[in-house]
Write a structure and sequence with these properties.
It contains 18 helices and 17 strands. By secondary structure, the protein is α+β, with helices and mostly antiparallel strands. It starts with 6 loop residues before the first helix and ends with a helix. The strands form four sheets. Strands 2-1-5-4-3 form a five-stranded antiparallel sheet, sandwiched between helices.
Length: 693
């Protein structure tokens, strides 16, 4: 062995290099793709936030502007009937706190509307609204020059969140000549918009006017706009787009931002997210992936060491035996304990050694020509032996790698369906927790604060007096009765949520057990043993639909299930049949998703004859070409990307169904129209006879 590089070390070196390359390539591609997808998702999120906010603000200003125009029409008329008409126009408007007018564009000289309830809510007086201090902040000059203006209204103590909106109105005579010009000013209460942007926990959202002055933000009123938001504001001024997303830096820190201009650029909605905050999950994913890759790499190296040792040990024994023969020991015997080609080769060497020993005893005096022939024959056998060993090693490596790859692919594909169902159900639970439960907690917190405030103000008598007061919602009830009714409703909501949570937990536990069974069946790298029992196929179909319902709901796909078979009892393995159904349903959902623009519909129909039950699964998805229809049942054939399919699903489904004595076939598939598969299963004849009797 001196001067030689062992096959074992070559094998280990190649395996180590391939493993390192694959793990590194996976981490690189996964990180790159995830970061790109995450960036696009954040951009879409910011764009939607500012677009929706701008649309709501435009609607608000449009409504207020229409009412201001109507009020301005009667500006010069002082009759009581006219004043009452103006009051009727704007009195019932919840978003208006004040509407007035100015003829000299210097101060307010007439009031159309002042919301008394607003003054009581914020403990304000008419002077706080109509005094010189708030009036001085009205941009009359901008209103007169540009026709409109938007600003932030600051009242006493800065406690009332208001938006100022002013319009310049021209009064004309019957000939259309301008005879008068005055300004109409309104203070708008943007509580609904304030609540809307307050719910955007991921990003910072503010609204400024065209000069960069803060109108309002999700964190409440501020004295000034932050520097990073001002950077985004300056970038928006240099961009001709009304709505745009971009990435920018401030003091070396990256941000992902979006803006949307409204009212012809009179105000701008801005949203930004720090890059490190948005991609915190990516860093955790990379860290976990690196740990997992290290573990898998270590396990693979250990497996390669054991595999190489089992391959090279018999070869080392054979080489040592041949070394003794080369030294002249023709009585040696090579002992190989394996039951493979190497053992056969060792037996051949032993036979050859025996023959050589016999020949040497019988032909001691043989001539030189015979010795040359023996040497030539020995050399030829050594060459053949080396070729056999190399072929054997290549065959073993290829067989093991192919088996491991196929079984690993099958395991990943079979685990994917229940794992997808679990993720979809958990997402739905998350939405419920952030919805009903959060609202109930906010309600209980508000009730507790009200009771505590009454208690602190006057003790138990004050609290009882508050309870006995009439309800603002239902004057026929006391406040205590209203609180009791609200507590009862909260209790019913939580009881209902508890029942639904129990069902969801049972569903998640069932799917987890199914994953456990799938993984357990793959441990031995062999075909799993089915546990065939009598089952109602209709019940198993219903279970499969429930499993995939969350995924279908996410894609707005409608299920149509028509269970029309008179006899649905077959002998199948429950998990394998459900796996087959979910494979087909998942493929149908992906086909509908790829179609884009269609109203997704997935139909499952059953029927039966005397001997067989059939199940049709039909979708209105993208369909398949005629060329691909001939290849769909081939192992590892797929038209999907690597992250959406492995090409094993239909092959596994057909293997399961044939194991039940049934089969699957493609009935039809047309591009942009849809696909229809049919499953066949043998019915239990005894049950059929009993039913017919």
């Amino acid at each position: 062995m001196e001067g030689m590089f062992s096959i074992r070390y070559k094998f280990l070196g190649v395996m180590t290099f391939l493993l390192l390359f694959c793990v590194g390539l996976y981490l690189f591609l996964a990180t790159k793709i995830y970061i790109e997808d995450k960036t696009e998702l954040i951009f879409d999120y910011n764009r939607n936030v500012v677009s929706n906010l701008t649309s709501d603000l435009d609607d608000l200003f449009q409504r207020v502007g229409d009412k201001m125009k109507l009020a301005a029409h009667f500006y010069q008329q002082k009759e009581g009937r006219t004043q009452k008409l103006i009051g009727d126009i704007i009195e019932n408007s919840e978003e208006l706190a004040f509407v007035g007018a100015s003829a000299n564009y210097k101060n307010l000289d007439q009031t159309f509307h002042l919301d008394k309830e607003f003054l009581q809510t914020y403990n304000l007086t008419e002077k706080d609204v109509l005094g010189e201090s708030p009036s001085a902040l009205i941009p009359f000059e901008t209103i007169q020059k540009q026709g409109e203006a938007i600003w932030s209204v600051v009242l006493s103590g800065n406690v009332a969140p208001l938006l100022g909106y002013g319009k310049s109105v021209f009064q004309t005579d019957s000939r259309g000549q301008v005879i008068d010009q005055f300004a109409v000013v309104a203070y708008i209460r943007p509580e609904a918009l304030y609540k809307e942007i307050s719910q955007t926990a991921l990003s910072e959202v503010i609204v400024t006017n065209q000069n960069g002055d803060l109108l309002f933000s999700e964190s409440g009123r501020q004295n000034q706009v932050s520097h990073e938001v001002m950077t985004l504001f300056e970038r928006s001024k240099d961009t001709p787009f009304s709505t745009h997303v971009l990435q920018f830096e401030y003091l070396g820190k990256k941000f992902l931002g979006a803006f949307s201009k409204g009212q012809g650029g009179r105000y701008i909605a801005l949203s930004n997210i720090p890059y490190d905050k948005a991609f915190l999950a990516v860093e955790h994913l990379i860290y976990r992936s690196a740990i997992l890759g290290s573990i898998l790499f270590t396990l693979a190296v250990l497996g390669a060491i054991l595999l190489s040792r089992s391959i090279t040990r018999p070869i080392d024994t054979l080489i040592q035996g041949m070394g003794r023969v080369r030294e002249g020991d023709l009585k040696t015997k090579i002992e190989i304990q394996t039951k493979d080609e190497v053992a056969v080769l060792a037996q051949s060497f032993n036979s050859m050694i025996y023959d050589l020993n016999s020949s040497r005893e019988q032909l001691t005096e043989a001539n030189r020509n015979l010795e040359d022939k023996v040497k030539a024959r020995t050399q030829e056998l050594a060459i053949q032996n080396q070729a056999v060993k190399e072929a054997q090693e290549a065959l073993i490596r290829s067989t093991r790698l192919a088996s491991i790859g196929e079984v690993a692919g099958q395991a990943a594909h079979e685990v994917l369906n229940p794992l997808t169902s679990i993720i979809s159900r958990i997402q739905r639970l998350k939405n419920e927790v952030t919805g009903d439960v959060k609202d109930s907690l906010l309600f209980l917190t508000q009730m507790h604060q009200d009771w505590l405030q009454d208690w602190k103000q006057g003790g138990m008598p004050q609290l009882v007096a508050a309870w006995e007061s009439a309800s603002k919602v239902d004057p026929g009830k006391t406040l205590f009765e209203e609180d009791l009714e609200n507590l009862r409703q909260v209790t019913e909501v939580h009881r209902h949520n508890q029942s639904e949570l129990q069902k969801d937990l049972e569903f998640l536990l069932g799917e987890s057990h199914r994953i456990n069974r799938i993984v357990s069946s793959m441990r031995s790298l062999s075909v799993s043993h089915s546990e065939k029992r009598e089952h109602s196929i209709h019940k198993l179909i219903d279970r499969s639909v429930v499993i995939m319902a969350d995924l279908a709901e996410q894609q707005s796909i409608q299920f149509q299930v028509r269970l029309e078979a008179q006899n649905d009892t077959c002998r199948v393995d429950e998990d394998e049949f459900v796996q087959s159904m979910t494979n087909l349903i998942r493929n149908a959902i992906q086909a509908i998703e790829e179609a884009q623009g269609v109203s997704g519909k997935l139909t499952i129909t059953t029927g039966s004859d005397e001997k067989r039950l059939y199940v049709d699964i039909e979708d209105n998805g993208v369909g398949m070409s005629e060329e691909n229809q001939q290849k769909i049942f081939k192992n590892q054939f797929t038209t999907k990307s690597r992250d959406r399919g492995t090409g094993l699903g239909l092959g596994i489904t057909r293997r399961f169904l044939r194991g039940f004595g049934g089969d699957i076939e493609l009935l039809s598939s047309r591009r942009n129209i849809g696909t229809r598969f049919r499953l066949f299963l043998p019915l239990l004849q005894t049950n059929a006879k009993e039913r017919s009797a």
